[in-house]
Amino acid sequence: MLLSVPFPGSVYAALRIAQTIKAARPDVVCVLGGGYVNTELRELAEPRLFDFVDYVTLDAGERPLLALLEHIAGKRSKTRLVRTFWRDAAQVRYTNFVEPDIPFDDVGTPTWDGLPLDRYLSLLDMLNPMNRLWSDGRWNKLTVAHGCYWKKCSFCDVSLDYISRYEAASAEVLVDRIEAIVKETGQTGFHFVDEAAPPKALKALAEELLKRGVAISWWGNIRFEKTFTPELCQLLADSGCIAISGGLEVASDRLLQLMKKGVSIEQVARVTKAFADAGVLVHAYLMYGFPTQTTQDTVDALEYVRQLFEHGCIHSGFFHRFACTVHSPVGLNPAEYGVTLQPLPADGRFAKNDIAFIDPTPTDHDGLGQGLKKGLYNFMHGIGVEQDIRSWFPVRVPKTTVPKRFVERALTMAR
Ligand code: SF4
Questions:
Q1: Domain map of the chain by residue range?
Q2: Verdict on whether the full-model pTM lies above 0.85
Q3: Does residue 168 contact residue 201 with C-beta atoms inside 8 Å?
Q4: Centroid of ligand 1 to alpha carbon of 245 (angstroms)
Q5: What is the pLDDT of residues 247-305, one digit of tens each?
Q6: What is the distance between the alpha carbons of residues 267 and 257, in angstroms, rounded to a whole number?
Q7: Which of 144, 152, 245, 290, when mutated, tests ligand 1's pocket best, judged by the most ligand atoms within 8 Å of its CB?
Q8: Fold classification of 116-413 (topology level)
């Protein structure tokens, strides 16, 4: 029995599932994997986890699971398991008998065969229109490619396999998978769960969908890069794209450069507008509290966001507080970003991910964060878009330095 844990919030439920199965059928082999495990449990040393599961595997699951199946069938010893943790008496052991991963082109088509999909739970946990897409209804999940083709952003886990190993499949293979999934599930909605779907692959996919007359609705994450011209956005919309999300992050050109995002605010304005004009819902991931971010940067960020709403470039957004993770460039080279890391607890045996840091820049991120969230929430509902940006902050802040017509000009320059 395989349990895939994507986020920290799913860990408890996964362990309860494993516990219940083990209580009823102790002979069932339980294996834990997935995004959370791949990110946070890489240095696992807690033997009590194995009271619930028998094995924990890291990164792409195909090869470790094939090895594990052979082991269970008595054809492979434990010393030849691939990227797998297991318990040996009271000790956690990690075995990685290196074998090549299965190419993305050959991983096959996901299947939901036998599951009661009509009983899928719809949740409305947030009014934000993009968050609503996540959990209000069911989507077939598929990836356009493995990993991220950009893999440079300094806050991202670029040193880990799920970002760093980029591999694409051909459009023909992807549309074969899509057709097979629609046939099996009877459902035509797709969520492409890539961290950042590559524009060239999306273009080829859209052309193949249109060529074969396959009618689906789809949405996913992208980078707001200039390859997304108005023509490409229209093509994607014609192929069934209903929503996209991407990182505008700190909405400051200085900090976007420092974080190696590879986009500018002007470019984001043009790309988001092109998607919006094609009838696609646009969501921006936003961030505050990045190393060296000043109060002025934060006020200006909200002004950029305000202007993007004013001009119909974005419809939705969410401000996340920056978290430094051990596998990101900031966590690996803190001095380059002007911060120092706090030591991790010496006795940590379970998850290792977020790491506290000291940023000498005197910015009240807690106070400013409230203003960012309040302003953004109102903009999403069309409220107060014309108001002075300072009015959203609960603390005294300086006037914005962003020209009043910045986004308007960026959009005019595109014509
Ligand atoms: S943040 Fe997104 S675009 Fe940047 S490296 Fe990570 S996955 Fe790629």
A1: 2-95, 116-413
A2: yes
A3: yes
A4: 12
A5: 999 999 999 999 999 999 999 999 999 999 999 999 999 999 999 999 999 999 999 99
A6: 13
A7: 152
A8: TIM Barrel (3.20.20)
